[in-house]
Every structure is written in C-alpha cells, then in structure tokens.
Amino acid sequence: xxxxxxxxxxxxxxxxxxxxxxxxxxxxxxxxxxxxxxxxxxxxxxxxxxxxxxxxxxxxxxxxxxxxxxxxxxxxxxxxxxxxxxxxxxxxxxxxxxxxxxxxxxxxxxxxxxxxxxxxxxxxxxxxxxxxxxxxxxxxxxxxxxxxxxxxxxxxxxxxxxxxxxxxxxxxxxxxxxxxxxxxxxxxxxxxxxxxxxxxxxxxxxxxxxxxxxxxxxxxxxxxxxxxxxxxxxxxxxxxxxxxxxxxxxxxxxxxxxx
Length: 259
Description:
By secondary structure, this protein is an alpha/beta fold. The chain contains eight helices and six strands, in the order αββαααβαβαβαβα. Helix 3 (about 80-90) packs across helix 4 (about 150-165).
C-alpha cells in the first residue's frame, strides 16, 4: 500500500508544461469595393458654380448658364426637406376655428321640465350639449399653429429640393421671356418648350409685365425668385426659371450666407 501512495504522489507532482499565452490578433475588415459613381450623383458643393443648358422661347438650345452649386448640387437631406414642408404647411393654418361651450351659448337657464313624474330622463338647461342648438363638448378653439425653422435649415432644405428637382430633370432655364408682352406669346413659348401640367414659373426682379403675361395660363403658378422655398419646388412637376431669376437667386443665397 505505501508503494502505491508514493507512485500516486510522483504522478501528481509532475510539473505541468508551461504554454505561452496566445496573443489575439485583431481581424482586419475587408475593404469594400469602390462602386462606380452614378451620372446623377450631385456635384460636390465646394465647387463655385456648375453649368446648365438654356433654352429659347422657340424651344431650341441657346447656350448654357452658370448656376450656384451650393443650391443645385448640394447633398440631399430628405428628413430636413420633410421638416421644412411640415413647418410651411403648419404656418399656413389660420387656427381660427372656434365653438361655444354650454356656458357660452345664449338661452334660458330654466329647468326644461320637472325632475320626476314625466317618464323621461332628468334634465336641467336646454343649453346642454345633447340638445340641438346647445353647446359643443371638446370643440376646437382658436390657437396658434406657427412653427419656427432656422434660416440655415430653410436654405439647406431649399438646396436639397432644388438638387432633387435637377437630378429628376424637372428644372429648365428659358431666355427671352422678359421681352414677351402678350399672354398668347407666353403660352406659345411654354408650349414650344414642352411645359404643361402643374408648373412653377420663377421670375426675377422687376418682372411685372412678365407676370401679367403668364398669370392667366392654366396650371402655371408664378413666384419671385427671392420667395422660393422647398415646398413650392416639391409640389410642381416642372420648375421654369427666367434667365434673370438665376442671378436674383444667387444674390439672395450669397447675402443669406454672409449673415
């Protein structure tokens, strides 16, 4: 028996071979392949300007024009555009809807019939909400729906809307519209350039005569370049710029940026 114990002790006392700790090597993620750039991808906003074709009143091409890349080749932010549209629509609400409660309706305060003995439900005044001509329960009251949006966010939303419209081919610049003096001539110019349906006509400054020529054309809305915003760009199928309106829009954008 003692010999067996000694053998067991010798076996248990054998030194365990020391193993070197394994160092964990960080795995490198595989590089994603470079995808070819789409022809519709917006130009970097670092560029000062980009070019856009200009059409004449006869529908033929008449050269190109430089447009600010900060507005027409910006990074599209759909969430910001949706926020700008929501703010614009909220600010169009008057909030003047109003109803009267039972305390505001004119009428007698006399109890309409006795409490007991009629077989009907007990009632007090005739101005209760369950009677015709009575007050309204939980009806609307005048309130202010106005929302504020910072100027930088408005400008970024407009740039996103204009860039999206340009990528979708909805923008057009026409030269020579300022010289037209009749609605018939204006309609012929729009027809020659294939403009139909819901369209927005963006005019420059001092374009009163041009506005009068175009205001009676069906489906054509008119807006000054200094009043352009994201919602009106998105709500039309075609955006037509006078050649003079580009300079007004560029001057407005630069002045807002410098503030």
